[in-house]
Amino acid sequence: MAETAFTADDFQPAAATESAQTVSRPSLSYWQDAWIRLKANRRALFSLYLVIGLSLFTLIGPLIWTVDPSLQDLEQISQPPGANRDAVVVMPHRPWDGTVRLPEIRGLELAEPATTQSVRLAWAPLPNAAGYRLYRNLFPAGEGQALGLPLFETASLNERHFEDRLDLKPRTYHYSVAALDTQGRMTGAVHRLELAVARVVTAQEAQAMGLVAEAGQLKPGDRIKLRAHPLGTDYLGRDLLARLMAGARVSLFIGIAAPLLFIAFGVIYGAAAGFLGGWADQALMRFSDFVVALPFLLFMILLRVASGVQPGESGITPMVLAMVLLSWPAAARLVRGQILQIREEGYISASRLLGGGAPYLVLRHMIPNTLGVILVTMTFAVPTAIFTEAFLSFIGMGVAPPTPSWGSMCNEGIKTMLTTPHELIFPALFISVTVLAFNLLGDGLRDALDARMRSAE
Amino acid sequence: MLRYSLKRLLQGLVTVFFIATATFFAMHSVPGDPLASDKALTERIRANLEAKYGLDQPLTTQYGIFLGNLLQGDFGISYTQENRRVNDIIREHFPVSATLGILAIAFAGLGGVLWGALTALYRNRLPDVLIMLAVILGISVPSFVFAALGQLLLVQINGVLGFSVLPVAGWGTVAHMLVPSLVLGLGTMAYLTRLMRSSMLEIVGSDFVRTAKSKGLPARRIFTHHQLRNAILPVVTVLGPAIAAITTGGFVVEMVFAIPGLGRYFVQAVQQLDYTVIMGTTVFYGAFLVFMVIVVDLLYGWIDPRVRLE
Amino acid sequence: MTGAPDRGGEAAFNRSAARQLGLFGLAILVGLAALMWGLNLLASLTATAGGAPPAVDAANNAITVMLTEEPPQLDSTRSTDQVSGIVLGHVMEGLLRYDDRGELAPGMAEQWRIDEGGATFQLRADARWSDGQPVTAHDFVFAWRLGLDPENASEYAFILYPIKNAEAINRGELAVTELGARAIDERTLAVEFERPIAFFDKLTAFSTYLPVREDFYRATEGRYGADADQLLYNGPFALSSWVHGQSLRLDRNPHYWDQARIRLDRINVGYITSDPNTRLNLFKDEKIVMANLAAENLTNALEQRWHIQRHMDGSIFYLDFNHREERLTRNLNLRKAMILAQDPGELVYKVTKTPGYLPGESLFPRFLEGERGKFRDEHPAPTYQLDVQAARAHLEAARRELGLEAFPPLVLLAGDNPVSNIQTEYFQAVFKKNLGLDIKIDRQIFKQRLAKMTAGDFDLVLAGWGPDYNDPLTFGDLYASWNLNNRGRYASPEYDRQVRIAQGAMDAPTRMAAFAEMQRIIHEDVVIIPNYERGVAYVTHPRVKGIVRRVVGADTDYTYAWIE
Question: Which CATH number applies to A44-68+236-453: 2.40.40.10, 1.10.760.10, 3.40.50.2300, 1.10.3720.10?
Fold first, then answer.
């Protein structure tokens, strides 16, 4: 071991250098820091992409998929998603007097080719019949089985023809005509007929659908491609994709505008209460307690009805207003709490000591420090607002038709969920994805923005 | 404690008065005519009806009469069910909604704690992933979709088995209550599960748990006395709002499952502009919620000694 | 060296915790079971119905059915709605009633005689109330006076107006004792008419004409008909329980006179719901014996191989124009343009899609009787065919007559139920497509829609009308200028004249000719755009026979039903 000799020089104070003060990493603002944290959170990032995707779907979507969401394609009602379908052009429908151009009618026969416009049937007399009842079925009916939908009934023996126009789809149908006795009961004698219906469209309809420029360009017998509906159609043959986009505008507008407004109001209200303090604070907060105590959904319904939607209006504004009117106290309380807390923080006192004026304190410290919390609250308020809209639509107190919203589309879809599930699945999916995205984004933002609220994950 | 409770109750009464006033004026601003009917009324019949319900008085007088009756706990006679008192309607139908709500809260609260604790325990392992997937579904799917699907599922199950396991709709027995209350509580359960999970995870890493471990307390004791107990606290705080959401949000489930709850009556009453029923239901629900919030706050103070009620 | 035991400890800790949670879960289950048991007790205090009775309960000779709504109350003098009508049809009986083929049959009255001046009804000796006391002529006189008493404010008072002095009493100009209906003795009821009436027998089957016993009515102190024990019954069944919003139980009334025709012992109304999916699910689950099918559920019904039946309920639906001075729709050419621009067939076949709906052609539905056969067979309704060219020509003519640059949007008033939503959306698109007319949909809650209809705050309104009694007049007088239900205020002296003829004449040929004239005027003046006559597709339980659907009177009627 070597001896170490100290000299007096060794005990000189170190020269003050700047290097100790040097910040070795780049300085990060609050928002930069938050962004880095958010980027590190895979789920939050994913939900952010979802939200961006939804915004694009809502804003850019209608520019790409330029189908009119209110255009009714009555040839394609409640069609599931699918490829292009084509149809034969026919003459417009004319009433039928029952004349049959067949040499002889045996059993139940088609008087003319079966189309989605009409199926014209005629039948030969059945033994011991006092009347007839005509049925249509989707499935072949075996012996003793139900014959299907009763379409027509007559007590006249001479009336042995019927024109079926009811909701004809291009598919196979099983018709049967049953003899009735004088009491109206079935005797058991039945004619049956299985037939395939061809999809047709009139030239006028084709023009109205925008398939051709002039109805005159088409003549009966031409084949024409019908409109494509990538996500299918609804109960009036409207394009589901276009309606989902239009509905997105309504649902997302309500979902974002309402929270934005009530939080803005709440911030002003809460900040006022927090700043004023004392008696005014007490009074303001007591009033917000009252509003909080109002039963939310009951009052939503009441206010929605009270606002009285005018003819042709969608009722979006009254709904947003009602939401704002009932939801602001939560935000007000939160902001007031934050402001009260921040007011007591050391850095405020420090800032004040260093000569920071009131505007500086508010702009530089209070607002940035509450902004995180506000943003998080706002993100969580979006799903709630979207759900509320859907709820109200479900009980028929939502947005007025024909304005589509995801909630009202769900409501319509639920009725047909057994036969045409796509009418429920798509709007429900959009609601779920939106709600999920905003919830996850809210989680991510909370972790990123607010160290105190950070969840332990 | 008693002083505090009394003070809160007094505040509650003032709040109920505020709710009653807000309801009264909101309702009277609803456009439309509560007496209108499918068959047009003659002037004379109309005047008789107006006199019967006091609609011929000025609004302020009506308000005074309404407040007077409210003090006596009398909500008047229904407009649509002409021979029934609103008090009777509430008395008969609120227990139904409350039963549904209590069960739903029980499902949601207990289920939320159980699932939340499980996910925290099996963090990032299969049970956690599965439960959290279910939670995501529970949070993001509207309850009316669940209600419709739940009913459909019941029909399918009953159809496959050939006998009725659970009734698909209606009310009267426990069997009727199970599925509707489960559906009603699902969203809240999902929410509470999430809350419980993060609360648990926070506590697992906390100092007092580490201390408890290091001083050699049995695992069982640490889990129940330190982890569960502390993790449940945040769950209790949100129970108040959850009760509010569930009891007033029950009408969708009531409609789908044909349950004679008060919520369904309220929706009908709004459609029919049944003034007395709207008033009665809203004021009653408002009072109920105010009371529930007070109870939950007192409960919280009792569970968590750190919270001082003042 | 430090890691391993810790990990082992962690695992042990987790195992222990999982065990704890398992126990906790078990405790929850037990707790919930206890809670539900408690709630069950609680529920059994408020509800009498225990369990869910099956659709068909052969052991008790009982069936279970559902209602779409809760009857608001069962006070027959004030009841207005269809659901109350169904229940009243089972538990009460008027002087006359409708039988299983929809024909008038003797009820409380065993014999009757009607002429131009009045009517006499002879009550049967064995007509009894459910407490065993006889039904007397006084009970009818009391009920009718009650129906007309201004204090009682019955909305259906007008249906009693054919009785002498009835209208004056209802206006408060005469005392109720002045009513032209007297009990000559316990079993003889004499009625004087205000003016000759051809269909008084049909009116007596209507619910406002049902008897009410005075002493019982007074004893209820204003709660008559509000609960099962607040009502006295004289029909085939009697309410033995009524849990509001949930269930009603109708038990066979042992005091009913015609025991032979009643084959069921009990009818449970187990469910009250207007949700078509719930209805379908209940039927599928064999919980109810009959269910109306919504259009969306037809495919499912076919898959289930159910025997689907259909029934026309006799209501008509139409677009009513506003004929008031200041309205554009007062212009005949505009109305013609609109009726020519739409096809009720398309509406019925592509939009409503229910079998049984018939495209609307007339104000008078097909079930109405004419002289010998059906009115509509004897007097076919003139119709318009879709003709877009002609429609546009009329529209142009209307534009010139009204001196307009272009048409402002027309307001289409409608209710907020799903059925009217679909139709308004359809009509909006049709008139836009074929005429370029903008339609603003004004969708309102029930009472608000009625208020706006009364105030005339609309251009078009989606309206419907069902028959009160089985005579064309129930539709015909709708457009009389004095009828308050003529919400569009259509006024035509010629039409009014025909209504007066139909009201006053006693012979069928004159009356039917008058109705035919009304049908023609409605068509030529385009007073309304007929949309459809409503029908229902429904399914019944295969073991239950004799369920009666009818146009006038209680629809559905289970009093003739039996279990096979």
Answer: 1.10.3720.10
Mean pLDDT of B24-47: 77
Q: Give the range of the structural domain holding residue B179, as residue numbers without chain letter.
A: 93-261
- Complex ipTM above 0.85? no
Chain C contact set for B111 (CB, 8 A):
28
Question: Helix, strand, coil % (nearest 5) of chain A?
Answer: 50, 15, 40
Q: Please name the helix (run of DSSP H) or strand (run of DSSP E) that holds residue C533, with its range, or none.
A: strand C528-540
Beta-carbon separation of A167 and C413 below 8 A: no
CATH superfamily membership of A90-201: Immunoglobulins (2.60.40.10)
Span A239-262, pLDDT tens digits:
889 999 988 888 889 888 998 898
Give residue limits of the domains in chain A. 44-68+236-453, 90-201
Position B234 in a domain: yes
Query: H or E element: which one contains A435?
Result: helix A422-449
SS (H, E, C) chain B: CHHHHHHHHHHHHHHHHHHHHHHHHHHHCCCCCCCCCCCCCCHHHHHHHHHHHCCCCCHHHHHHHHHHHHHCCCCCECCCCCCCEHHHHHHHHHHHHHHHHHHHHHHHHHHHHHHHHHHHHCCCCHHHHHHHHHHHHHHHCCHHHHHHHHHHHHHHHHHHHCCCCCCCCCCCCHHHHHHHHHHHHHHHHHHHHHHHHHHHHHHHCCHHHHHHHHCCCCHHHHHHHHHHHHHHHHHHHHHHHHHHHHHHHCHHHHHHCCCCCHHHHHHHHHHHCCHHHHHHHHHHHHHHHHHHHHHHHHHHHHHCCCCCCC
Q: Which helix (H) or strand (E) holds A342?
A: helix A316-343
Q: Is residue B165 part of a domain?
A: yes
Chains that touch A (3 or more CB pairs under 8 A): B, C
Helices (H) then strands (E): counts for chain C: 17, 20
Q: In the structure, what pLDDT confidence band is assigned to residue C81 with cuts at 50, 70 and 90?
A: confident
Residue C133: strand, helix, or coil: coil
Sequence-ordered list of residues with C-beta below 8 angstroms from that of C26, at least 6 positions apart, any chain: none
Minimum distance, in Å, between the CA of residue C46 and any CA atom of chain B? 7
| CA dihedral for C141, C144, C146, C148, sign (positive or negative) | negative
Joined together, the tokens standing for residue C254 give: 């042992």
Mean pLDDT, all residues of chain A: 82
Q: What are phi and psi of C202, to 5 degrees?
A: -70, -35
Locate the chain B residue with the closest alpha carbon to A303: B26
Residue B73 lies in a domain: no
Mean pLDDT of B184-206: 84
CA–CA separation, C93 vs C206, rounded Å?
A: 9
Contacts of B among chains (3+ CB pairs under 8 A): A, C
What is the total count of domains within chain B?
Answer: 1
Look at A10-19, A290-299, C56-65, C417-426 and tell me which has the smallest mean pLDDT: A10-19
pLDDT digits (tens, 9 = 90+) for A75-114: 788 888 876 678 888 888 888 887 777 777 888 888 888 8
Of the residues C15, C35, C36, the best mutation for testing chain B's interface (the one with the most B CB atoms within 10 Å of its CB) is C36
Task: Note whether B168 and C54 are within 8 A (CB).
Answer: no
Joined tokens for residue A273: 């209460």
pLDDT tens by residue, B83-94: 788 888 888 888
CA-closest candidate to residue A401, choices A228, A230, A235: A235
Q: With contact defined as beta carbons under 8 Å apart, do C307 and C539 qualify? A: yes
Assign A228 to helix, strand or coil: coil
Q: Could you tell me the CATH number of the domain that includes residue B132? A: 1.10.3720.10
Query: What single DSSP character describes residue C427?
Result: H
Domain presence at residue B124: yes
The closest of C430, C461, C439 to C528, measured between CA atoms, is C461
